[in-house]
Amino acid sequence: MKRLVKGGRVISPAQNLDASVDIVIEDGKIVQIGPDIMCPEAELIDAAGLVVAPGLIDMHVHLREPGLEAKEDIYSGSRAAAAGGFTTIACMPNTKPVIDNAILVSGLIRQGKLEGAVNIKVIGALSKGQEGKELAEIGDMIYAGAVAISDDGHWVNNAKLMRLGLEYTGMFHKTIISHAEEDSLVAEGVMHEGAVSAMLGMKGRPAVAEDIAVARDIMLAEYTGASLHVAHVSSRGAVELIRQAKQRGVKVTAEVTPQHLALTDADVTGFNTAMKVNPPLRSRDHVEALLEGLKDGTLDILVTDHAPHAFEEKDVEFRYAPSGFAGLETSLGVILTALYHTGQFTLPEIIRFMSARPAALFGLDGGQLIPGAVADITLIDPDREWTVDSRNFYTKGKATPFEGKKLKGKAVATIVAGNLIMQNGEVKI
Ligand SMILES: [Zn+2]
Q: Which terminus of the chain is more exposed, N or C, with fewer CB under 10 A?
């Protein structure tokens, strides 16, 4: 079947394209792009007043499958992704059991094709059981289709193991994604260490824990020549270390989340467990450094770190609550509200961070709108005003720090391989 996406503002940063053009889709691919295309036999998708972007890609999602399906599974998580405008998501391996072997990687890829509403990519663990002792089957997992390697959830404490992981992963031209927080400094901390934690009497997770972890990982990446991707950067020191490393030619890239850009530790004062996340929401000076880092190319991509938990797990005292919250269905709205509508970033810049750049970094299909490319497309209404109501979420994890917040900007349609799978917030498959 042919489809014609007509009348929109098409933005594809990979081609420096920002123009009023139409797109014809056939057999899951883009076949034609140009002004005023007439194609009477095609089904029309009216994009008047909308931005037409390459499908959004999220490289940091916890789908919780296998083993933790009370929090999320492929079915629910991928529908949350579709609702949020994502066409490709990559799932982290801190599941039960941990995704640390080729059988699990290929099983999840197969399950993703069967049950997933969007493209599901799999990230394999660096160490067996994510215990930080012995390397996992990195080569086998990459052959089975793993797109990156990570012990996300915690740092790889053992420098020798991290070195081996980098050397081994580098041989396959893949990247290690590091959750950079030095263990001993954050052991009992529940929020950013600073004036607010002191006032609340809460144990802190100091920014220096992140700086130390990032510094060591950069040194090992530089020493081995392998590539490193720093997950959810949140500290000013980490931004500066990554900036300097990039200037030296170290193969380091980095990501940042909407929550670390839009919120601060002051938001924790109400002890709302939806504000608890690792690394923690930091103070304003760190947020300013993150925005600068995103602007000057130090930080490469935006990710959600979608980390859903069951309601009863989050419905406890702050210090006992698990860290993380749902992000797929609020990410674009938060980013457009905090970055675009404040005049700090343009739409092409944001689409680069959320689609073109992650596709290029991790060698994924999509991320661009050109004839021959897969027809993964997101239609965005940048001015649509809406209020976050977690009762409407597709994810099982209803906790969100943005509950009740008014946002401006929303994905209004998601097209995966030419199929219209979400329209006006409703997932159709
Ligand atoms: Zn993490």
A: N
